[in-house]
Design a protein that fits this description.
The chain is of the alpha/beta class. Helices cover 45% and strands 13% of the residues. It has an 8-stranded parallel barrel with strand order 1-2-3-4-5-6-7-8, surrounded by 8 helices. Helix 9 runs antiparallel to helix 10. The structure holds 1,4-dihydronicotinamide adenine dinucleotide (NAI) and 5,10-methenyl-6,7,8-trihydrofolic acid (MHF).
């Protein structure tokens, strides 16, 4: 008589993505010559939800190719990431990629978040390690984004995964070569496209892209553009990104920093010019950190829309 071996399956059950969500970000990137996407961040408190919702929906009304919602970055809280993402997708019908960070998370929390992404109909997640909190790391389930990528692959097969990369090198990496080697591991773990940290010097980006391709990293790379609309934002951005600020940008901040209106317009012009140059040099995918400012997103978009339309054959 044969016996059936009673095996205990210790693997958690796999989460399947709902049928109805169909536009993965990688498919959007592959479907057009050039794309424009906008990033927003979630509110910090429940009281701030209506204003954040309105900002996100006003930005979505511009009809970018897709949007991303950060995971509690820059003072926001991850509690509202799914809520804001659902509004954008459900109300405006714009595809969304929620971010997910892992450094302050347990495996259980990651799984719960992935479940809520799946229930919200999201087919793409931006997998990040996340900023190290000032008060230290509360959990040690994850060390690097590549470990999160591996877990998403395991728990959510079929989920499209994006990752971050650093044209100026990540501030914790000993040098750019090591950073690119680590990036290769992350891509090999299952990242289908990359999105860069903000940069203000396109030459830095072109050089970086050349190095990625030479290392065999062939996935699409979204160029991350931050319109600097105030001197304070530049300070915060440099602190969080470690990116270099070209002398000509410093001169603009020095000249107009004290005039909110002048510096805002200068930031819009600088970002629009950066994007125009990137598109002219064959960069296909532009990702703008809108800082939840619909007027800034709209101004940048209207400057570059004719170029995008032309390159897309419209
Ligand atoms: N919260 C958000 O929405 C966003 C956050 N970020 C920030 O970007 C930063 C890093 O996140 P990720 O790029 O996802 O992290 P990552 O884990 O890919 O890389 C972080 C650092 O660890 C190094 N590293 C990676 N794998 C390694 C390995 N196997 N061995 C040794 N070193 C390794 C990298 O070179 C890099 O210096 C964080 O500060 C994150 O918060 C960036 C964009 C958005
Ligand atoms: N290291 C790092 N962490 C991030 O979270 C991050 C990046 N880099 N680079 C790409 C985008 C840019 N992000 C940003 C950039 C700036 C702020 C920021 O200045 N936040 C303000 C609050 C803004 C407001 O409430 O209006 C802050 O005080 O932190 C937030 C997110 C999120 N992303």
């Amino acid at each position: 008589m044969s016996t059936v071996k009673n095996t205990v399956n210790r693997q958690p059950p796999v989460l399947y993505i709902k049928e109805f969500c169909r536009m993965k970000i990688i498919d959007i990137l592959n479907s057009k010559n050039v794309t424009l996407s906008f990033e927003v961040f979630p509110p910090k408190t429940a009281a701030a939800v209506p204003a954040a919702e309105k900002a996100a929906l006003d930005i979505a009304a511009l009809r970018p190719d897709f949007m991303s919602v950060t995971y509690g970055a820059g003072g926001g809280t991850s509690d509202f990431t799914v809520h804001i993402a659902e509004k954008i997708k459900g109300v405006a019908g714009v595809e969304v990629m929620p971010h997910l960070t892992c450094i302050s998370s347990t495996k259980e929390k990651v799984r719960t978040m992935l479940e809520s992404f799946r229930n919200g109909g999201f087919e793409t997640v931006m997998a990040l390690r996340g900023d190290i909190p000032a008060e230290g790391i509360p959990h040690r389930d994850y060390g690097y984004a590549s470990e999160l990528v591996a877990d998403i692959r395991k728990y959510c097969p079929g989920m499209c995964i994006g990752g971050a990369c650093y044209p100026d090198g990540h501030y914790e990496a000993p040098n750019k070569d090591a950073d690119i080697e680590n990036l290769k591991k992350k891509v090999d773990a299952g990242v289908e496209f990359l999105s860069t940290q903000m940069f203000f010097d396109n030459a830095v980006f072109y050089n970086y892209l050349y190095r990625l391709r030479a290392e065999g990293i062939t996935v699409p790379v979204l160029a991350g553009i931050m319109p600097i609309t105030g001197a304070k934002l530049l300070g915060r951005s440099v602190t969080m990104s470690g990116t270099t600020v070209p002398a000509r940008y410093k001169a603009i901040i020095d000249a107009y920093g004290d005039s909110p209106e002048a510096i805002k317009q200068a930031g819009i012009i600088y970002a629009s010019e950066q994007i125009t140059d990137l598109l002219a040099n064959g960069v296909k995918n532009i990702h703008v950190f809108t800082m939840n400012k619909p007027d800034v997103a709209e101004a940048v978009y209207s400057n570059i829309k004719p170029a995008l339309d032309y390159l897309n054959g419209n």
